[in-house]
């Protein structure tokens, strides 16, 4: 639970969307988080069997990072578990996740967009969630960019940042 991971933005969006939220882990924000968001079920670090139980109860996994995640293991692990993923547009995997139909991307810095995306996932018909899961398990196109693809994505991000600064 660190500020740059977007946990506060996620909790605020979940509250606004009236979506139940479970977090796993600890960190510098843990104590403040418990006080400010008592409605969130906060789990400490847990072993793999406990995490498996929590994932079985989940509708989706959210990766709300506030920075451009260069890879996003959370998204990959969720996909490998058959769970839909919600991630920021700025994550390098966002386009691939959405194009493959494995989840949704949003602007995690826009509370309205973030809450709308959580609501969309909550209200998604069960057959659509099942389709996401089956697509993920089929793993026909594993997530592994070529070195050239990684370089192109990194240069694209740098160009965007340079253009914004100019």
From TrEMBL:
Source organism, top-level taxon: Bacteria
Signal peptide as annotated in the record: none
InterPro entries to which the protein is assigned, alphabetical: Glyco_trans_1, Glycosyltransferase_grp1
GO molecular-function term, one example from the UniProt record: glycosyltransferase activity
Pfam family, any one: Glycos_transf_1
Domain Glycosyl transferase family: 3-135
Listed PANTHER family: SULFOQUINOVOSYL TRANSFERASE SQD2 (PTHR45947)
Name the record gives this protein: Glycosyl transferase family 1 domain-containing protein
